[in-house]
Amino acid sequence: MTQKKLLAIMAHPDDESFGPGGTFAKYAAEGVDVHLCIATDGAAGSVAEGHEDAREQLADIRAAELVLAVNTLGGTLHRLDYQDSGMSGSPSTEHPAAFVNVDEHEAVGRVVQLIREIRPNTVVTHDSTGGYFHPDHIQCYKITTKAFHLAGDPNAYPEQNLPPFTPERLYYTAFSYRWTRFISMLMRLRGFDPTALGRNKDIDMTKLGVSPKQLHATINYRKYWDVKANASRAHATQGGGTRGGPFGVIPLPIRKLLFSKDTFMRGFPPVKDGFREKDLFA
Ligand SMILES: [Zn+2]
Questions:
Q1: Could you read off the pLDDT of 109-162 as tens digits, one per residue?
Q2: Among 66, 140, 144, 222, which residue has the fewest nearby CB atoms (within 10 Å)?
Q3: pTM of this prediction?
Q4: How far apart are CA 235 and CA 178, in angstroms?
Q5: Are 165 and 152 in contact (CB under 8 A)?
Q6: Is residue 255 part of a domain?
Q7: 196 within some domain
């Protein structure tokens, strides 16, 4: 039996761990060849104005954290090394080298090349909302979706000299609005305002999430909870993935029961709302 392969394209160093890290750890432990491609250097989020010269150092620190995290999950790391765009409205979004401003044909081509070289069964990326409307997550969705459909087209990027290849499945990471409402309620109980989160206070938790009917695949990673936790901890400059105030009240065994599931929308082949599966491979 040939080894199954998974390729995930995620926006920032930490999205592979804080996001579906449990799913990646589970598949890697089960013998799947897991490839994790990170699009940006992740250096915009934490650089305060006036400290732009620290950006290069921060990118280096986050690169080292990422290597450790991906090793912990059991994957092979790939990087596109674009510049983190930051959240909408921040000056970093205007930078010509920011991921949101790069030449689309070139960026799609790099993902096409990865797909043709790795030949994965399954491709994973962010959904069209990027989870919380981060421009880099949305850019990842756009570029990966285009690349997924072009990689099998012999007329696309012929200069790559690689045989065309179409993966079997495309999944988008997503979560239910039932979740975000539940978390919003917990936050209010703990005295946090769920409508003004993040550094710019521009993330409204109550508006995030998709209909549970659109969550076609659910992966239970309870056995790999600690692997995900260790990979998240590797991202020390991002807070190590501590789930924040509202979760502290829930005892760990119950947290494991509640939170050890990743949910995905299936992008290809298309399925009807309400479709349910428990595996990302055909
Ligand atoms: Zn991100």
A1: 999 999 999 999 999 999 999 988 899 999 999 999 999 999 999 999 999 999
A2: 222
A3: 0.92
A4: 28
A5: yes
A6: no
A7: no
Question: Which parts of the chain sit beneath pLDDT 70?
Answer: 45-56, 199, 241-249
Q: What sign results for the dihedral spanned by CA atoms 36, 40, 45, 50?
A: positive
Q: Distance from the CA of 12 to the center of ligand 1, in angstroms?
A: 4
Distances (CA, A) of 228 to 12, 166, 191, 265: 16, 29, 28, 21
Please tell me the distance between residue 87's alpha carbon and the centre of ligand 1 in angstroms: 10
In a domain, 224, yes or no: yes
Does 256 map to a domain? no
Q: Which domain holds residue 77?
A: 5-175+211-244+261-268
What is the pLDDT at residue 244?
46
Looking up residue 122, the CATH number of its domain turns out to be 3.40.50.10320
Q: Which residue type is seen at 68?
A: L
Number of domains in the chain: 1
